[in-house]
Amino acid sequence: MELQDRVAIVTGGAVRIGRALSLRLAAAGMRVCLHYGSSEQGAKQTSNEIRSAGGQVVTVQADLGTPVEAATTIIEAALSAFGKVDVLVNNASIFHSGSLSELSLEDWTRHQRINLEAPLFLSQKFAEQINVSQSGAIVNIVDWRALRPQPGHLSYTLSKAGLVCLTQILAQELAPRVRVNAIAPGAILPPPDADAGHLEQVAKAIPLQRTGSPANIAEAVLFLLQNDFVTGEVLHVTGGQQLRVPQ
Fold it and tell me: Which 8-state DSSP code applies to residue 98?
C-alpha cells in the first residue's frame, strides 16, 4: 500500500503508543483521524505537532465503552473530514490486573467492550465504507500474552486473545480488498502506576536484554501497511519476551 494521502484512523491516538502511531503515520504522508477517550489535552498536543509538521489531522472524542455508538462516531468523523478511510489501527485498550477470584462482572464487561467489541464494530463500519475500487488495511494492537497466556490479567488477556481470533477471521472475510493483521507488543512502556525501575527489571527476562520503544511499534505498523502480501498475521515486537515464558 502506498501511504501518501491515505486516511488512517488511530484509536487511542493521543498518548503513549497511540501518539507514536499518529505521528509516524502522519510523517509517512497519511491523513490521520485521531481518536481519544479522556486524553483531550494529549489529543490537542499530538494534533498540533502533526499540523506543525505539515500534516493533516482531525480529532474525535468517543467512549469505547459504548462500542457501537463509538464506532459510528469515529468512522463518520473521518469520512466527514477526509471523504474516505483506508486504514484502521485499533490501538486503544485498558489493562487491569485481576485473577479469577478477583473478577467482577464490571471489570470483565469493560475489558471486553473496549478491547474487543470496539475493534469489532469499528472494523464492521470500516469495511462497510470500503468501495469496490479501494484497498484497505486493519492493524490490531494485541499482546504477546494473548498467544502465551499467563495468570494475573484474566479479563485483559481474554479480550486480547479474542482480538487475535478476530484478526484471523476478518483476514479471511474481508479479503481480498482489506488486509487484517495484528501486532503483539512486549515491554514498551511501563504501566502508569509503575516505578522507575519497572522496565529494568522486566528487561532481565527478555532475550535481547532491553525493552522496546513506541517507535518500534510504529515501524511495525508501517511494515504491515506497506507489505501487500501479508494478512492474518500476528507480528511479535517483544525482543523475544514470549520465548521465555515457561511451558
Answer: B
**226-to-11, 52, 218, 220 alpha-carbon distances in Å:** 20, 25, 12, 10
Predicted local confidence at residue 152, as pLDDT:
86
- pTM: predicted TM-score of the whole model, two decimal places: 0.95
Cα(96)–Cα(235) distance, integer angstroms = 23
Q: Please state, as a whole number, how many other Cβ atoms lie within 10 Å of the Cβ of residue 18.
A: 28
Provide the grid cell at 141: 494492537
What are the structural domains, with CATH classification, of the chain?
7-244 (3.40.50.720)
Contact partners, residue 238, CB within 8 Å, separation at least 6? 144, 184, 185, 186, 187, 206, 212
pLDDT, averaged in runs of 10, over the chain (247 residues): 97 98 98 97 98 98 98 98 98 91 94 98 98 94 94 94 98 98 94 78 92 97 98 97 76
Amino acid sitting at position 50: I
Residues classed as catalytic: 156
Amino acid letter, residue 33: C
Please provide residue 236's backbone torsions phi and psi, each rounded to the nearest 5 degrees: -80, 130
Residue type, 152: G
Chain-centre distance for alpha carbon 146: 14
CA–CA gap between residue 86 and residue 88 (Å, rounded)? 7
N-term to C-term CA, the chain: 38
What are the grid coordinates assigned to 113, written together? 467492550
Angle at 241 between CA 238 and CA 247, to 5 degrees: 140
